[in-house]
Design goal:
The complex is a heterodimer of chains A (118) and B (114).
Chain A lengths: L3 E4 L2 E4 L5 E7 L6 E7 L5 E8 L5 E2 L8 E7 L2 E6 L8 E8 L10 E2 L3 E5 L1
Parallel strand pairs in A: 2-11
Antiparallel strand pairs in A: 1-3, 3-8, 4-5, 4-9, 5-6, 7-8, 9-10, 9-11
Chain B lengths: L2 E4 L4 E4 L4 E3 L1 E4 L5 E7 L5 E7 L5 E4 L2 E4 L9 E3 L8 E8 L1 H4 L3 E3 L3 E6 L1
Parallel strand pairs in B: 2-12
Antiparallel strand pairs in B: 1-4, 3-9, 5-6, 5-10, 7-8, 8-9, 10-11, 10-12
C-alpha cells in the first residue's frame, strides 16, 4: 500500500533554532501534501496544504513566516519551524494524496514528528 | 459547512467488552466517511471507510455503517482487546468540493484493561 515517510520522528532542540521536517511519499506521486499539528489530547489541526511547484495554502491563524513549507517535487514536502520556541512544541503529522487512487483513500499519513523545544 | 462530531472520551472498557463510539456528521452532497486509528506515539492509520449510504466498512473486527438518514457512522466492535487501546478519529471527505480534504472529529481515546 501507499507509504508516507516522515523524518525525523522525534527532535529536541534549543529555543531559537530552526527545525526542518521532511515528508516523503515512497511509492506514489503526490501533488498535494497536508501538514497537521496535534496538541495533547486534541484532534488534528490542519496547518497548510502544500501543492507541488506552488505556494502552500495556510489555514487561518497559522503564521506562514513561522512555518515554512516547500513542496519541490512530487514526492517530497518539507516543513521548517523557524526560530522555534517552547510553545511550538507539538506533534506534527504530514499526509499525502495519491494521484492514481484518489477514490480509495483521500490521504496517506506519516508517523508524525514529536517536536520538543527547550 | 462540513463538520464531524464524535463522542468524547476517554472510554475505558474491560477486555472482551462491546465497543461503540458514536459519530455524526454534517455535510453538503454525499461525503465519504472514515475511521482512523492512532496508536500511542504514531501517526494515523485508516481503519475502515464507506463511500455511500448503507455501505458497511469493516476491518480487524471493527464495523461502521454509513447511515444517511441519521447522518451517522458509529464505530462498533463486539469484543475489544488490550491492543485496541488507541485514539479513534471519525472523518469525512467531500471529494466533489474540497478534492479530498479530510475533516476530523476531535478523537475518542479508548483504553482497554485486561
Amino acid at each position: 500500500g501507499a507509504v508516507v515517510s516522515q523524518h525525523p520522528s522525534w527532535v529536541i532542540c534549543k529555543s531559537g533554532t530552526s527545525v526542518k521536517i521532511e515528508c516523503r511519499s515512497l511509492d506514489f506521486q503526490a501533488t498535494t501534501m497536508f501538514w497537521y499539528r496535534q496538541f495533547p489530547k486534541q484532534s488534528l489541526m490542519l496547518m497548510a496544504t502544500s501543492n507541488e511547484g506552488s505556494k502552500a495554502t495556510y489555514e487561518q491563524g497559522v503564521e506562514k513566516d513561522k512555518f515554512l513549507i516547500n513542496h519541490a517535487s512530487l514526492t517530497l514536502s518539507t516543513l521548517t519551524v523557524t526560530s522555534a520556541h517552547p510553545e511550538d512544541s507539538s506533534f506534527y503529522i504530514c499526509s499525502a494524496r495519491d494521484l492514481q487512487v484518489l477514490s480509495n483513500q483521500p490521504q496517506h499519513f506519516g508517523d508524525g514528528t514529536r517536536l520538543s523545544i527547550l | 459547512g462540513n463538520s464531524v462530531t464524535q463522542m468524547e472520551g476517554p472510554v475505558t472498557l474491560s477486555e472482551e467488552a462491546f465497543l461503540t463510539i458514536n459519530c455524526t456528521y454534517t455535510a453538503t452532497g454525499y461525503p465519504s466517511l472514515f475511521w482512523y486509528v492512532q496508536y500511542p506515539g504514531e501517526g494515523l492509520q485508516l481503519l475502515l471507510k464507506a463511500t455511500k449510504a448503507d455501505d458497511k466498512g469493516s476491518n480487524k473486527g471493527f464495523e461502521a455503517t454509513y447511515r444517511k438518514e441519521t447522518t451517522s457512522f458509529h464505530l462498533e466492535k463486539g469484543s475489544v482487546q488490550v491492543s485496541d487501546s488507541a485514539v479513534y478519529f471519525c472523518a469525512l471527505s467531500n471529494y466533489g468540493g474540497s478534492q479530498g480534504n479530510l475533516i476530523f472529529g476531535k478523537g475518542t481515546k479508548l483504553s482497554v484493561k485486561p
